[in-house]
Amino acid sequence: xxxxxxxxxxxxxxxxxxxxxxxxxxxxxxxxxxxxxxxxxxxxxxxxxxxxxxxxxxxxxxxxxxxxxxxxxxxxxxxxxxxxxxxxxxxxxxxxxxxxxxxxxxxxxxxxxxxxxxxxxxxxxxxxxxxxxxxxxxxxxxxxxxxxxxxxxxxxxxxxxxxxxxxxxxxxxxxxxxxxxxxxxxxxxxxxxxxxxxxxxxxxxxxxxxxxxxxxxxxxxxxxxxxxxxxxxxxxxxxxxxxxxxxxxxxxxxxxxxxxxxxxx
Length: 265
Ligand SMILES: NC(=O)C1=CN([C@@H]2O[C@H](COP(=O)(O)OP(=O)(O)OC[C@H]3O[C@@H](n4cnc5c(N)ncnc54)[C@H](O)[C@@H]3O)[C@@H](O)[C@H]2O)C=CC1
Ligand SMILES: O=C(O)C1=N[C@H](C(=O)O)C[C@H](O)C1
What we know:
It contains eight helices and twelve strands. With 265 residues, the chain is an alpha/beta fold. α1 links the parallel β1 (3-8) and β2 (28-34). Residues 130-263 form the Dihydrodipicolinate reductase C-terminal domain. Residues 4-127 form the Dihydrodipicolinate reductase N-terminal domain.
C-alpha cells in the first residue's frame, strides 16, 4: 500500500536526501512539501535534481486542510518541528520526526496527543543504525564502567547543542547507572563550560567544526583501562534506511516512540 508523505524541510541537508529516498521507494509518494518559502511552486521546480512533482506549502494548516496524507516527515528546526508535529497529530496525520532539540515537556505533550488520537509518532534523535548500536553498546558498558563522558562532533551549521544523539545516549546510560558526580569533588572550572554540560553527572562535550558531518565518542574510564565507543556518519545517506523503517513502522503504531532503539530488534 502506498504511504502518502508530507516532507517538511525539503531543501535542507537532510530534506534533500529524504527526497531521494521517497523517489527511490516504490510505496512512498510525496504528496506535498512544507518549506519556509516557495509557496505555490512544485518541488521539481525548486529542487531541479528531484523528479518529484508535489506542491509546496509554507503554512501547515493550509497544507493539512488541502492534502490527504498519511505521514509527516519533519527535518527542520526544533521550534518549527514542534509546531508541525503537534498540528499533524491533531489532524490525524502520523509523524516521523528527525528534528532534534525537543524537550521532555514536548515529548510528553506529543505522546499524550498521539495516544488521544490513537496514531503513531516516531521521534528519532538519530536514524543511523550504527549510531543506535553505539547507544545500545554504551548502555551495556555503563553497567560495568560508572565513569563516562560523551564527546559529540558535528558540522558548524548545527543549531542545537548538545546533539539529540548525545542527550539520548546520556539518558540511556543514566537508566542503568546510579547518579554520580564525576571528577574530583573539589574541581572548579576556571573558564565556565570547561567540563561540558551535565546530564545526571554525565559530562557532554559538543564540538562544531566545518568538514564534520555527525560523529560521537562515548568514553568510559575504569582502573587501569578505558573503553571508547565511536560512531561516524560520513554523509546524510547514512540516515535514510532509518527514515524508511520509521515511516513503515509509524503506520502500525498507536503511541509515540522516542528513539529507534525501541523499534529495531
Ligand atoms: N535524526 C537524525 O538522524 C538526524 C537529525 N538531524 C536533525 O534534522 C534537522 C535538520 O537538519 P539539517 O537538514 O542538517 O538542517 P538544515 O538547516 O540543512 O535544514 C533545515 C531546513 O528546514 C527548513 N525550515 C526552516 N523553517 C521552516 C519552516 N517554517 N517550514 C518548513 N521548512 C523550514 C530550512 O529552510 C532548511 O531547509 C536538525 O534538527 C538536525 O539536528 C540531522 C541529521 C540526522
Ligand atoms: O544536525 C545533525 O547533523 C545531526 N543531528 C542529530 C543529532 O542532533 O543527534 C543526528 C546526527 O547526529 C546528525
